[in-house]
Design goal:
The protein is α+β, with helices and mostly antiparallel strands. Helices cover about 50% and strands about 15% of the residues. It folds into three domains: about 5-120, Helix Hairpins (Orthogonal Bundle), CATH 1.10.287; about 140-185, SH3 type barrels, CATH 2.30.30.60; about 190-270, Alpha-Beta Plaits. The protein has a five-stranded antiparallel beta sheet. Strands 6, 7, 8 and 9 form a four-stranded antiparallel beta sheet that branches. Strand 1 and strand 2 form a beta hairpin.
């Protein structure tokens, strides 16, 4: 005998002593059973919510901030549990009211099939979003590239993500449309500075103590620099000598480092009365 049947039998035995009208007794038993199911639904959904979010205060004490992805996963689990449990409680309440549930559930099955068939894109987006969140493909604040779209992640949801590009435009992409993601916020970046000189340029100048001091002082004055190059690369001989300097920087700080080093490089060669040409990267993204 189930818990509901035991409770119903207990109530019937209790009311037999006081109520002789069968219809009134059945009504009171049904009302109490409905109240019981409602209270049970409230208590269990609250309990699951407490279990899922009980670590929040502990994380605050440890100075750990919960990420948006973690919050989304917890909300998802809580909503799924609450939906299925409340659905089950509603079935039990309808049963208490004497409704025949078999035709109702059969009709709901046909309706669910029809709705599901028409909501394939929505289902695909939600499932893709769950995997994106669980697998931590990217997080809020990351700079990513999806197809030809580049931007900073400002929101990660179950249905779609939002990016902000360097123009300040907000781009919304459905999770189901994401096939390949390039995450630019994981590894360090590289600042690439290229310049050209005439053929009579003396290569030993790039190995001089003055030039090495330039590299050393630049790293010292720029905390975003991780590592300066040990040598300058000669990359081309067409129409003069073309050199490249590759500086390892903290993630997404390479643009500022490129600008700062170009300025110092021009000042250095001006002091040496050496003519160089530095190309302007007009198409460079500002992110």
């Amino acid at each position: 005998m189930s818990l509901a049947e035991q409770l119903r039998e207990l109530l019937n035995n209790l009311f037999d002593k006081f109520i002789k009208i069968e219809s009134l007794k059945s009504l009171l038993v049904s009302l109490i059973m409905i109240t019981f199911w409602i209270l049970l639904a409230y208590i269990i959904t609250k309990l699951f919510k407490i279990i899922l979010f009980k670590t929040k205060s502990l994380e605050e004490k440890l100075d750990k901030k919960e990420t948006e992805e973690q919050k989304t996963i917890k909300r998802l689990i809580n909503n799924v549990i609450r939906f299925f449990f409340i659905f089950w409680i509603l079935v039990m309440i309808l049963n208490e009211l004497g409704l025949d549930l078999i035709p109702l559930l059969a009709g709901a099955g046909v309706l669910a099939f029809a709705v599901g068939f028409g909501a394939q894109e929505l289902i695909k987006d939600v499932i893709s979003g769950m995997f994106l969140i669980i697998e931590k493909t990217f997080k809020i604040g990351d700079n990513i590239e999806i197809g030809n779209t580049y931007g900073k992640v400002i929101d990660v949801g179950l249905r779609r993500i939002k990016l902000e590009n360097w123009k300040g435009e907000i781009i919304t992409i459905n999770n189901g449309d994401i096939k390949t993601v390039k995450n630019l916020s994981i590894n360090p970046s590289f600042a690439v500075i290229e310049f050209k000189t005439d053929y009579d340029f003396k290569l030993k100048e790039l190995n001089s103590s003055d030039f090495k001091n330039l590299l050393t002082s630049f790293k010292k004055n720029n905390p975003d620099v991780i590592e300066m190059p040990k040598s300058v690369l000669l990359v081309d001989l067409n129409e003069g000598l073309k050199f490249s300097i590759n500086i390892k920087t903290k993630n997404r700080t390479h643009v500022g480092i490129e600008r700062a080093f170009r300025k110092d490089l021009i000042n250095y060669f001006n002091d040496k009365n050496i003519k160089i040409k530095i190309p302007l990267l007009i198409n460079q993204q500002e992110n």
